[in-house]
Write a structure and sequence with these properties.
There is one protein chain. The strands form five sheets. The chain has a five-stranded mixed beta sheet with strand order 2-8-7-6-5, with helices on both faces. A three-stranded antiparallel beta sheet has the order 9-12-11. Strands 1-10 form a two-stranded parallel ribbon. It is globular. With about 450 residues, it is of the alpha/beta class. The N and C termini lie far apart (about 45 Å). The protein has two domains: about 160 residues, Aspartate Aminotransferase, domain 1; about 250 residues, Type I PLP-dependent aspartate aminotransferase-like (Major domain) (Aspartate Aminotransferase, domain 2). The protein is about 40% helix and about 15% strand. The structure holds ligand F0G. The site of ligand F0G has 15 residues, from helix 4 and helix 5.
Length: about 450
């Protein structure tokens, strides 16, 4: 049962079947080109799409829009200190802004940067700083059927081999992404975090945590990691982040805001350097591209994100959707992750070869069948990489109800029933930067 009530509502309606077919054709069979008013249930992302609480809305009015030294910034500093244990904070307009600020400060050309798995923007910012991003996920992370409580972990031995191969001097930091978004939202254990921190200490480099889903990760630890059964989410989060030397945060996830992010560091000297780069790219170091009111709402959201009841319900909703889809016979990535259910499109549309983009075909069909918008994270989004053909159904925080889950399950079931008639697709136009093509490429059924 939810522990909160709706106070403001927004109307939504399912367009007629023929309209949906028209909309998706007009969108070039790419759901990023759809108008959100034509989408009935929007599972494109959990980023910036959550519902703020009345406390957060109230906080907006306290927003101090002073260019420098605003009281809203002080509220954020207090929240980051109490929830995450970091003294030095530099706001950024969103997660990738924070990545640009920190990674542009830390990395140089010819560096090589290990991460359990780089999220797309992380990979791009590491590369943009001239360094080479290297994924070091544990065995089974990319296998939808492998079991494991912490499939999001970093493969510590793989990082050691990388250091041996390339020389310790070329590894400027270790990054840990919690939860591991590019590995189906799988959690990272505290034990793994501690080992990553020990290795970073050995190499005398910072351990950076991409903390955008830190509270969800902490919840999994309370459920799965021996020794943490009686800990609160807030306690686990504090401990897990205590092993990091720096954080990058997209506040659009576990900050429960619609925009924002920040960098947090311990070392005063690094703090100075980060501030200088933030001024260049984001804005003065006490607002960093955010309005004071949004900073104020973030200060409240961070504290709400670690409330046990909230996180249990949040993850519980994802688990419920996944379990119901599995019970209906849908092939899904197991175990279920934190912010999304990932459908295995290659298994669901087994008549389509990879060359015909079964993942994108499934995304299109979910929209045509039920006005549900998911996103492909397989061969269309990541051309020329060896990843499972997954379709992500990400649940925005505090937005949808059980009735919406009913509709999602009915939609997936209906698609499974006529799976064999679902056509494959070909890409008919793509932008020059192929790595970013899923945002704007156009397709046609074949
Ligand atoms: N790191 C991770 C692990 C993320 O999942 C994201 C965003 C970012 C960094 C970048 O943050 O969007 O605020 O600039 N993930 C969103 C998603 C876009 O849909 O998974 P941002």
């Amino acid at each position: 049962m939810r522990s909160y009530l709706s106070k403001m509502v927004t109307s939504t309606q399912l367009p007629e079947r023929e309209e949906r077919a028209e909309h998706i054709a007009d969108a070039g069979y790419n759901v990023f080109n759809l108008s959100s008013s034509d989408v009935f249930i929007d599972l494109l992302t959990d980023s910036g799409t959550g519902t703020m609480s009345d406390e957060q809305w109230a906080a907006l009015f306290r927003g101090d829009e002073a260019y420098a030294g605003s009281s809203s910034f002080e509220a954020l500093e207090d929240a980051v200190k109490s929830v995450m244990g970091f003294e030095h904070v530099v706001p950024a307009h969103q997660g990738r802004g924070a990545e640009n600020v920190l990674y542009g400060t830390l990395f140089e050309s010819d560096d090589v940067v290990p991460n359990n798995t780089h999220f797309d923007t992380t990979r791009a910012h590491v590369a943009n700083a001239g360094a080479e991003p290297v994924d070091c996920p544990v065995d089974g992370a990319m296998d939808p059927d492998a079991s494991g409580d912490f499939k999001g972990n970093l493969d510590i031995d793989a990082v050691r081999s990388l250091v041996e191969d390339r020389g310790a001097a070329s590894v400027p930091a270790i990054i840990l992404t919690i939860t591991n978004n590019s590995a189906a939202g799988q959690p990272v254990s505290v034990e793994n975090t501690r080992k990553a921190s020990d290795l970073a200490d050995e190499l005398d480099v910072p351990l950076v945590i991409d903390a955008c889903r830190f509270a969800e990760n902490a919840y999994f630890v309370t459920q799965r990691e021996p020794g943490y059964e009686d800990a609160t989410v807030a306690e686990v989060a504090r401990e897990q982040l205590s092993y990091a030397d720096a954080l990058v945060m997209s506040a659009k996830k576990d900050g429960i805001t619609n925009i924002g992010g920040f960098v947090a560091v311990r070392d005063p000297e690094l703090f100075e350097r980060v501030k200088q780069r933030a001024i260049l790219y984001e804005g003065f170091s006490t607002y960093g591209g955010m309005a004071g009111r949004d900073i104020e709402a973030l200060a409240v959201g961070l504290q709400e994100a670690v409330e046990d009841e909230y996180v249990a319900q949040r993850i519980g909703q994802t688990q419920e959707l996944g379990e119901r889809l599995a019970a209906a016979g849908a092939p899904i990535y197991q175990p279920l992750g934190g912010h999304a259910v990932y459908l295995d499109a290659e298994a669901l549309l087994s008549h389509l070869p990879l060359a015909k983009y079964p993942g994108q075909a499934l995304v299109v069909e979910l929209y045509r069948e039920g006005g549900v918008r998911g996103v492909e994270l397989g061969s269309f989004a990541f051309p020329d990489t060896d990843r499972p053909e997954l379709v992500r159904l990400a649940l925005p925080r505090r937005r949808y109800h059980r009735e919406h889950l009913d509709h999602i399950v009915e939609t997936v079931t209906a698609v499974m029933e006529h799976a064999e008639s679902v056509p494959g697709y070909e890409v008919v136009w793509e932008p020059p930067r192929k790595e970013l093509r899923h945002f704007s490429a156009e397709l046609e059924p074949v």
